[in-house]
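Thread: "does anyone have the structure for this chain?"

Original post by V.I.:
We have the sequence but no experimental structure in hand. Need at least a predicted one for the grant figures.
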Amino acid sequence: MNRLGTEKSVRTTPEGLLWESSERWVRGRKAYVTVVDSRHPVLVWEPGVPVPLYAFPREEVRFDLLRPAKNPPTGAHTGSTLFYDLEVAGELLENAAWTFPADDLAGHIAFEWLQRTGTGLDHWYEEEEEIFVHPRDPHKRVDAIPSSRHVRVEIDGTLVADTRRPVLLFETGLPTRYYLPREDVRLDLFDPGDHRTGCPYKGTAEYWSWRGEADLPPDIVWSYPDPLPAAAAIKGLLAFYNEAVDLTVDGERLERPVTHFIKPLSPRPAR
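Reply from O.Q.:
Generated one for you, tokens below.
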């Protein structure tokens, strides 16, 4: 069996991939069929991609469900040219799996995740807990901490939130998010939408959009009605994209960060 070492240090391949072994028991399913059942997964970070994915020893994958890809993509997944279509429960998923060209990862197969790319396996589990979108990064922390900071949120000069009891969420590599009690937010100025997103650290979020005339993108407010246990402190609270609103904390106006979540917007001129 081709299994990589169990050392926890991150290694680099000549192709620019980062990888390390994981001791978690990981399973992936499609249409209630278990396609992956692995106790020796490997976490892989591709160049320029901020979140990891899993690769699995071939013998821990239902390889009988894979077929050489009929229309393999080009330039995908760090130079890989060996892709597979997945056929399960009468459905064919093109390019659902692939191997990496790195010698370090020879004999390992990676899969697409439905919630992240729109194709691939639709249910993933670490031990007995379902995970979403992508594997959780062992080098990343998510801390939700109650606070007494004074937080004010304005949109186009309109005060839409004012609280002294926020929960601050610190997530490695991202701006601090300020989660606010609903009774301290003018939620009547926003319209609920159908948009939903999943996060492997926090759960499933629901969204609201600004009802006014300011030039704002949709879905700038969100909440986790039933967060995962690690983020239980933000249950039902509301957060705004720092990138699109005017946020003042303890009297200090914060600069709008630039992230991949939302295009930064400049403040409108004072009237």
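V.I.: this helps a lot. The chain has a mean pLDDT of 91.
O.Q.: and The chain has one helix and 23 strands.
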